[in-house]
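Customer ticket, subject: "Can you confirm the structure for MFS transporter?"

Message body: Hello, I'm evaluating your service for our small team and ran a test protein. I'd like someone to confirm that this is what the system normally returns, since I don't have a reference to compare against.
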Amino acid sequence: MTENITSTQTKTPYGMIAILFIGAFVAILNETLLNIALPAIMDEFHVKATAVQWLSTGYMLINGILIPASAFFIQRFTDRKLFITAMALFTLGTFLASVAPAFGVLLAARMIQAAGSAIMMPLLMNVMLTAFPVEKRGAAMGMFGLVMITAPAIGPTLSGWLIEHYSWRILFDIVLPIAILTLIFAIFKLKNVTPERAIKLDVFSLILSSIGFGGLLYGFSSAGDKGWDHILVYGTIIIGTLALITFILRQLRMEEPMLEFRIFKYPMFALSSAIAIVLSVAMFSAMILMPIYVQTIRGISPMDSGLLMLPGAIVMGIMSPITGKLFDKYGARSLAIIGLTITIVTTYYFSKIDMETTYATLVWLYTLRMFGMSMVMMPVMTNGLNQLPAYNNPHGTAMNNTLQQVSGAIGSAVLITVMNNKATAKAEELASSATQGTANIVNESMLHGITFTFFISTLIAVIALILAFFMKRVSPAHDSNMNEEVSDHK
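Agent reply: Thanks for trying us out. I re-ran your input and got the following:
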């Protein structure tokens, strides 16, 4: 195993990484492509909004269940076997979705897609950690950030344009040939970078993890629609929390856990995880609140609202590799402080938008906010992962991806609740004064809810900035001890 880690650092497998990149890109792109198409799917299959929402919720749930288990899969199977299996599942799901004759088939297809995509991101991140030495990881992870950030940002714009001109099925038709080609290349060209180990899956851990993370994700995701007092919401959150506590205690007692929680004893990994959680909550505010403000309150078309976010996606795409190289040179702390300062200022200005704010102002603010965020997430995560011994890389990547999923769901639910409560209170206040028409009251109260929630997001981002001051650069010399640590562990 020691020889494998050393050799992978002397000869970087760029061809393999390119194949993994394309697979991960189409998988993440597909996650956000479908959101704008949901009304068209409702019309075609004659299903209600609560049912069609499962196309997104179900996808997220499968991710939440499988990502924690990805550490086991990455250690147990070779990169080649794992990626080909994941890509085959994703391709099969995409094909079934494209030809789905009924809503049930489409939902099953989305679940199959999710099963494939859930493994791709942790696998790609783990291969890059193994393939690059610590002093070159910033640039490598910057390219990884290009995939992770650009794909979901492009999704709504691309699907908005396609839905205006074609059937929703084209969203799967354009992804399918890329998925097939990636699968063919993987079968003929993919080689292994990380070794496989003969470890056994603890089935009870997998069940606890599925109930724990699945319950939390479902409960918090449903809160915005059903309300916190609905039994399905608080019931699944309580069950999920109890299962998760049992899961964590079980992992801490096991010699070879499914997901290693002892990695939090490394201070920079623990700190980077805390910053990433806080930032995920703040980041989701714009993703949820902007479409409501732009489309519902201002009446801007889905296509134009998608275009509004496109410059921000392009800036993030351009900045990701640059940020990675800056990280290698200067470390994560200075980048995080500058990026979070920009994020805080722009988020605060979003809390001041009104009915007269121009389209150009919104574009500039959103783009600047994305510019700030592009300097934070990947450097912070990479800095944390750099402190982990090589044998803990699969656990580090699985933990990061899991925490982002869960914190995103919790953050979204809390922010939607804050917005709804503030909007309802404002509507009652305006109705009692009876100086405006009903339509104006609805818009004014919703705007008030949105701006207040952006202000809360500003305060959340300030917490991340405070934490960033405690970051320290992990010395590349730590990596020279990794081979000994791997030997000791074995």
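A couple of notes from the result: Residues 1-199 form a domain with the Growth Hormone; Chain: A; fold (CATH 1.20.1250.20). The chain is about 80% helix and 0% strand. Feel free to reply with more questions.
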